[in-house]
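Minutes, project check-in

Agenda point 3 was the complex the collaborators sent over. CS summarized: two entities, 806 residues total, and the question is how they sit relative to each other. Sequences were read into the notes so everyone works from the same version.
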Amino acid sequence: MTDFDLMRGLHRAASGKIVLLVMDGLGGLPLEPGGPTELEAAHTPNLDRLATEGVLGQAVPIRPGITPGSGPAHLGLFGYDPLTYIVGRGVLEGVGVGIVVRKGEVAARGNFCTVDPEGKITDRRAGRISSGEAIPLVEKLAQVRVPDVEIEVRHVKEYRFAVVMRGPGLQPDIADTDPQRTGVPPLPARPTKPGSQKAAELFNTWIAEARKVIAEHPTANALTLRGFSTDPGLPSFPEVFGVRSACVAVYPMYRGVAELVGMSVLKFEGDMPEDEFAALARGWNDFDFFFVHIKKTDSCGEDGDFAGKSAVIEGVDAALPRLLELGPAVLAVTGDHSTPAKLKTHTWHPVPFLLWAPATVRTDDQKQFGETACAHGGLGTFLATDALPLLLAHAQRLEKFGA
Amino acid sequence: MTDFDLMRGLHRAASGKIVLLVMDGLGGLPLEPGGPTELEAAHTPNLDRLATEGVLGQAVPIRPGITPGSGPAHLGLFGYDPLTYIVGRGVLEGVGVGIVVRKGEVAARGNFCTVDPEGKITDRRAGRISSGEAIPLVEKLAQVRVPDVEIEVRHVKEYRFAVVMRGPGLQPDIADTDPQRTGVPPLPARPTKPGSQKAAELFNTWIAEARKVIAEHPTANALTLRGFSTDPGLPSFPEVFGVRSACVAVYPMYRGVAELVGMSVLKFEGDMPEDEFAALARGWNDFDFFFVHIKKTDSCGEDGDFAGKSAVIEGVDAALPRLLELGPAVLAVTGDHSTPAKLKTHTWHPVPFLLWAPATVRTDDQKQFGETACAHGGLGTFLATDALPLLLAHAQRLEKFGA
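CS then shared the predicted structure for the full assembly.
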């Protein structure tokens, strides 16, 4: 994994810009043996040219065989070993819907559940109510007030929501209120360290009030909270790697993870690759490193939409000239993990990685950006946490180590 | 290397079975430059079909350049870093001949040696006496009794034997009695920690009695003991990886290592691949994970029998349909290390690895199971300790890490 002290000691001034273009869930699988993956099926003349001029490889997101969630997968690509830098579930869930969680604020993930007249849980997921049904309930929760603290609640998906509490003297060491089984009531929020007594009591107050406003709902008539956590205080990406860093992303989750490591978030309208590359162009002179995130590859993968995922990749490919005319010194194109349409979920498979850096790259003999070509690429198979030093090196932004 | 806490947190229920088929010492070398290895020379239509449908790679047993013994090599394949999980030589030697060593029992490896009339060692290996000559001597040793403890002695090979002492209050911290040179007498068994005083004294008593029964032998008229050790209390494989696990192996050594990590050992008659696969079939419904061990590839390698090793591989290939008709979700075919017939010994070379998992595998473009194809395989080159997470992932037995 990346050694941050090593990185801090090797900063070197240089003018070349670095772009890390992440197509979420890029890695795929063939639908039948010997067939192409989504990326291989896509017509990508620009990416294939970059593959020819650059070098390929495959990145292992966390460790071989480990399927990452989006948070850990991005931390890995940013050089933070996700097994060392743990971000709590509550913070990640909040970040995922655009809630900023700062040091001293306590975030949790919430689930609606169903309780019987005695208060015992009969369904831990409230019959998996739809988002349409859950959103008005979350709006009711958002109206609940507790003295001395500010509470923000946002809907996530179906029966899930995120909640964050802000105020003085809050600490996040609180056990889950979800008993993980039915036939018993939700647990009270209990501190696991003395300093979290106050936050636990305030959450219990909030839970009691919140349950009143949803008590009449036929299924989502109670709730549980889990993953209490706060901003983990990750080392600063610009400080560790010595680059002024910006994020261009449509979805709050990815902007949130970038903020957690101290990147600046560039605002823009629209949700197409062209819109994102235009935002990149506007910020071009103010930063050294750009993380650009494309979401829809992953969404199509999750939906099992093989052709759709290929089409999203083709859209990115078509928009690439706009990015290239900015003149990056280094462009990496990869994903945070694989989301094969065949399996409709994140997977552990290594992720195609393309590194283009005209001044410094050692090219290999691969001429198409695809999984099989990447498995044969000159970069080999490497941990995602090794990507950042490679990008910095190719931008000549790292000093020699040792005399 | 495998992170056991991570593994424990990711268990996921699934129905697919996993088979890890280990051909001992599978990796080989060409007899002349450009020639085939033993595996490449073998006619293996079934393995080649699996290679075509699956993905290849090469596993590094311990670290690059490190030649493993059988114990560490198997621990690595089971996900236990052999540099972290040390099993004492005495235990491994005992395990290798079918002696079960439990916590609180003390095992040691024994060597016959030759001493002169003054008791000074003249040959540390007793002229490398043959097994035929050593076995009756070991039978004499096995008759020696020491009050309060039970002692088991078994022959290993030539001048080597294994001994284990069982009784109350025994601890294994005892220095080797082999002085590692000639011209001096064997050392007494000396405790290196106070708690091992009792065991050391009892071993000295046994050594004195044992030397009496072999004193008249012309070369093997004394003995030394080394590698005093006990069951290292390895984490339980079924508990770490969340799979009910069974071992199918002909040789005691491999059953022993499997038992050390808590696998169940399936009993069966015969020593052919067909016999082993039949045992696998009988246990099929009772376990999730099966370690199947083929010994004779290694034996042929050690004998320098290139053609014989190829023939053993062909025998496994021919029997494979019997295994495949059981319908495993994941089948890995590999070795624990290389034993090239050319070198007649274990070596450090990476080991061919074939992963077949029709529902989840990302195939590569390799179509033959062999060392060169594996070096180009989609799995790349990886540490053997990474194999287990890969197998579990492909059986969809691991949850996602993080949100």
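Noted in discussion: Residues 103 and 233 of chain B are 7 Å apart (CA to CA).
Follow-up: revisit at the next meeting once the mutant set is ready.
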